[in-house]
Design brief:
This protein has 69 residues and is mainly β. It has one domain: OB fold (Dihydrolipoamide Acetyltransferase, E2P) (Beta Barrel), CATH 2.40.50. It is built from no helices and five strands. The chain has a five-stranded antiparallel beta sheet with strand order 3-2-1-4-5, with no helix packed on it. Strand 4 and strand 5 (62-67) form a beta hairpin. The protein starts with a strand and ends with a strand.
Length: 69
């Protein structure tokens, strides 16, 4: 199951793990639901910040990428 939802970034934390770059990100949706994910940097827009409006791509009820609308 693949879908998209619009939301707002509530938390962003970039870090390296064993030489690979990752981003922990939390998103709030308009219906009050919060969702968090750990993504590779290729799956989020450069310069992503708290408060940014984003479109979240989800597969099998998990965030797989985030982009700006």
């Amino acid at each position: 199951m693949l879908g998209e939802r619009d939301g707002e970034v509530r938390e962003v934390r970039r870090f390296d793990l064993h030489g690979s770059a990752y981003v922990d990100v939390s998103v709030a949706y308009p219906d009050g639901v919060f969702e968090s994910a750990r993504l590779g940097i290729e799956s989020v827009p450069e310069g992503l910040e708290v408060g940014d409006r984003v479109t979240v791509t989800r597969a099998v009820n998990m965030i797989v990428s985030i982009r700006r609308p």
